[in-house]
Amino acid sequence: MEKYGFMKKFRPDELCIKEFENWIIVLRRKQTTLGDSVILLKREVPDISNMNAKEAAEFPSVVKWYEDICRKKFGAEKFNYIVMMMHDNYVHYHAFPRYNKKVNYFDINWEDEGDKNVLDNFGLSQISDEKTLFKIRDYMIQ
Protein backbone atom coordinates (compact mmCIF):
# COMPACT_ATOMS: atom_id res chain seq x y z
CA MET A 1 0.00 0.00 0.00
CA GLU A 2 1.25 3.45 -0.87
CA LYS A 3 2.24 5.73 1.97
CA TYR A 4 -0.01 8.55 0.71
CA GLY A 5 -2.69 6.74 -1.24
CA PHE A 6 -5.25 9.56 -1.27
CA MET A 7 -2.79 11.96 -2.90
CA LYS A 8 -1.29 9.49 -5.38
CA LYS A 9 -2.29 11.73 -8.29
CA PHE A 10 0.58 14.04 -7.26
CA ARG A 11 3.07 11.14 -7.13
CA PRO A 12 4.53 11.93 -3.69
CA ASP A 13 6.67 8.78 -3.63
CA GLU A 14 8.49 9.99 -6.77
CA LEU A 15 8.24 13.78 -6.72
CA CYS A 16 8.70 14.69 -3.05
CA ILE A 17 11.15 17.53 -2.52
CA LYS A 18 10.62 17.94 1.23
CA GLU A 19 8.60 16.23 3.93
CA PHE A 20 7.55 17.86 7.18
CA GLU A 21 5.66 16.47 10.15
CA ASN A 22 2.24 17.41 8.74
CA TRP A 23 2.96 18.49 5.16
CA ILE A 24 4.71 17.20 2.07
CA ILE A 25 5.95 19.29 -0.86
CA VAL A 26 5.94 17.61 -4.26
CA LEU A 27 7.07 18.98 -7.58
CA ARG A 28 4.18 19.64 -9.98
CA ARG A 29 4.30 17.51 -13.10
CA LYS A 30 3.25 20.56 -15.10
CA GLN A 31 5.92 23.19 -14.58
CA THR A 32 4.14 26.42 -15.51
CA THR A 33 7.07 28.28 -13.96
CA LEU A 34 10.30 26.66 -12.79
CA GLY A 35 9.88 25.01 -9.39
CA ASP A 36 6.08 24.75 -9.38
CA SER A 37 5.03 22.51 -6.53
CA VAL A 38 2.07 21.25 -4.56
CA ILE A 39 2.03 21.57 -0.77
CA LEU A 40 -0.16 18.77 0.57
CA LEU A 41 -1.49 18.16 4.04
CA LYS A 42 -0.50 14.60 4.91
CA ARG A 43 -3.89 13.90 6.46
CA GLU A 44 -6.94 13.59 4.24
CA VAL A 45 -9.31 16.40 5.23
CA PRO A 46 -11.72 18.10 2.81
CA ASP A 47 -11.53 21.70 4.05
CA ILE A 48 -8.93 24.09 5.39
CA SER A 49 -11.25 24.69 8.35
CA ASN A 50 -10.71 21.02 9.33
CA MET A 51 -6.96 21.45 9.84
CA ASN A 52 -5.89 21.14 13.44
CA ALA A 53 -3.84 23.77 15.26
CA LYS A 54 -0.59 21.81 14.89
CA GLU A 55 -1.01 21.52 11.10
CA ALA A 56 -1.91 25.19 10.75
CA ALA A 57 1.00 26.28 12.95
CA GLU A 58 3.52 24.33 10.86
CA PHE A 59 2.33 25.71 7.51
CA PRO A 60 4.27 29.04 7.60
CA SER A 61 7.58 27.19 8.12
CA VAL A 62 6.73 24.88 5.21
CA VAL A 63 6.09 27.87 2.94
CA LYS A 64 9.25 29.59 4.19
CA TRP A 65 11.36 26.54 3.33
CA TYR A 66 9.80 26.36 -0.13
CA GLU A 67 10.28 30.05 -0.88
CA ASP A 68 13.85 30.02 0.44
CA ILE A 69 14.83 27.03 -1.73
CA CYS A 70 13.26 28.54 -4.87
CA ARG A 71 15.02 31.85 -4.26
CA LYS A 72 18.36 30.16 -3.54
CA LYS A 73 18.27 27.59 -6.36
CA PHE A 74 16.45 29.47 -9.14
CA GLY A 75 16.35 33.16 -8.23
CA ALA A 76 12.56 33.28 -7.73
CA GLU A 77 11.33 36.72 -6.80
CA LYS A 78 7.69 36.30 -5.81
CA PHE A 79 5.22 33.50 -5.21
CA ASN A 80 1.60 32.77 -6.03
CA TYR A 81 -0.49 30.18 -4.20
CA ILE A 82 -3.74 28.67 -5.40
CA VAL A 83 -6.11 26.56 -3.33
CA MET A 84 -8.48 24.74 -5.67
CA MET A 85 -9.97 21.61 -4.20
CA MET A 86 -12.74 20.92 -6.71
CA HIS A 87 -11.33 17.68 -8.16
CA ASP A 88 -9.00 16.67 -5.33
CA ASN A 89 -11.08 16.95 -2.19
CA TYR A 90 -8.27 17.29 0.35
CA VAL A 91 -6.21 20.24 1.56
CA HIS A 92 -3.41 21.22 -0.81
CA TYR A 93 -1.90 24.40 -2.21
CA HIS A 94 -0.46 24.85 -5.69
CA ALA A 95 2.69 26.95 -5.36
CA PHE A 96 4.17 28.98 -8.22
CA PRO A 97 7.53 30.76 -8.02
CA ARG A 98 7.53 33.91 -10.13
CA TYR A 99 10.40 35.42 -12.11
CA ASN A 100 10.95 38.87 -13.60
CA LYS A 101 13.33 37.56 -16.27
CA LYS A 102 14.07 34.43 -18.25
CA VAL A 103 16.14 31.84 -16.43
CA ASN A 104 18.02 28.91 -17.95
CA TYR A 105 18.21 25.62 -16.10
CA PHE A 106 18.51 22.08 -17.42
CA ASP A 107 19.07 23.41 -20.96
CA ILE A 108 15.67 25.08 -20.96
CA ASN A 109 14.90 28.78 -21.15
CA TRP A 110 12.15 29.28 -18.60
CA GLU A 111 9.97 32.28 -19.22
CA ASP A 112 7.45 33.50 -16.68
CA GLU A 113 4.71 35.29 -18.56
CA GLY A 114 4.19 37.63 -15.63
CA ASP A 115 1.66 39.73 -17.46
CA LYS A 116 -0.66 36.73 -17.53
CA ASN A 117 -2.47 35.29 -14.57
CA VAL A 118 -1.09 31.94 -13.36
CA LEU A 119 -4.60 30.55 -13.70
CA ASP A 120 -4.51 31.24 -17.44
CA ASN A 121 -1.57 28.84 -17.76
CA PHE A 122 -2.45 26.46 -14.90
CA GLY A 123 -2.57 23.33 -17.05
CA LEU A 124 0.26 24.30 -19.38
CA SER A 125 3.79 23.06 -19.00
CA GLN A 126 7.16 24.29 -20.22
CA ILE A 127 8.59 20.76 -20.04
CA SER A 128 7.21 17.47 -21.22
CA ASP A 129 9.77 14.88 -20.23
CA GLU A 130 10.10 13.01 -16.96
CA LYS A 131 13.90 13.13 -17.09
CA THR A 132 13.92 16.92 -16.75
CA LEU A 133 11.27 16.77 -14.04
CA PHE A 134 13.46 14.46 -11.97
CA LYS A 135 16.48 16.72 -12.55
CA ILE A 136 14.49 19.64 -11.13
CA ARG A 137 13.43 17.52 -8.15
CA ASP A 138 16.97 16.36 -7.44
CA TYR A 139 18.34 19.90 -7.72
CA MET A 140 15.75 21.21 -5.26
CA ILE A 141 16.44 18.56 -2.61
CA GLN A 142 20.23 18.95 -2.61
Description of the molecule:
The chain is an alpha+beta fold. The chain has one domain (5-141): HIT-like (HIT family, subunit A, 2-Layer Sandwich), CATH 3.30.428.10. Helices cover 27% and strands 23% of the residues. The protein has three helices and seven strands; from the N terminus they run H-E-E-E-H-E-E-E-E-H. The protein has helices spanning 12-15, 53-74, 130-141, and strands spanning 16-19, 23-27, 37-41, 78-82, 92-98, 103-105, 108-110. It has a five-stranded antiparallel sheet. It has a two-stranded antiparallel ribbon with strand order 6-7. Strand 6 and strand 7 (108-110) form a beta hairpin. The chain is globular. The mean pLDDT is 89.
CATH class term: Alpha Beta
Number of helices: 3
* Cα separation of the termini: 28 Å
Question: Are there runs of 5+ residues with pLDDT below 50, and where?
Answer: none
How much strand?
15-25%
Q: What's the arrangement of secondary structure elements?
A:
Blueprint: H1 12-15, E1 16-19, E2 23-27, E3 37-41, H2 53-74, E4 78-82, E5 92-98, E6 103-105, E7 108-110, H3 130-141
Antiparallel strand pairs: 1-2, 2-3, 3-5, 4-5, 6-7
